[in-house]
Amino acid sequence: MNARLDRIGVGRFAGTGERLAAATIASVSFGRSLLWLLAASIVGCGVWMLLPLSKGSSAEPARAELAVVETAPSGDTAAAISSASEAQVPAMAELRRLRISSQTWRRGGLGSKALVTFTLRNDNDYAVKDVEIVCAFARRDGSHLTDRSRVLADSVALKSRKTFARIPVGFVNVNADQAKCSLVAARRA
What we know:
Elements: H1 16-50, H2 75-80, H3 83-88, E1 98-108, E2 113-122, E3 128-138, E4 144-152, E5 160-171, E6 178-188
Antiparallel strand pairs: 1-2, 2-5, 3-4, 3-6
């Protein structure tokens, strides 16, 4: 019944204890690092879930506070402008008959970008293009954070309306809770 264990060479396993101890220490430190990473991600997700929801998805009519209306030049100035220079300068549209009828906004790009959805109403007797909008972002208490602008290359036909869905306006502050978009300029198509 002798298993002849005395014939196993001890010299064959010499030094493996040191390597085994180093491998055990490395695996324990890797396990601890992985555990800290998991704990940090759980805490981060918990904090993110506790942040208040944005009220920016409510449809509110836009105020035309930032709108700039192109005025017609006086008689003396109009005579000084030649027909050649008028052809080079694009005709600006009147913003009084162009308005945003409804708007909403939401976050995109992992919460860092503002996506605006709005309906543009054109009551002019001509089509408009290159519509420039400015969106003002504010905190929940109403204090101003930042402004972002965007020029839309699409045209809006005369006496019609067009909905622009999820237009990226730019990066927005994480504290932004409200957005108000206004028209700044437009050109005749």
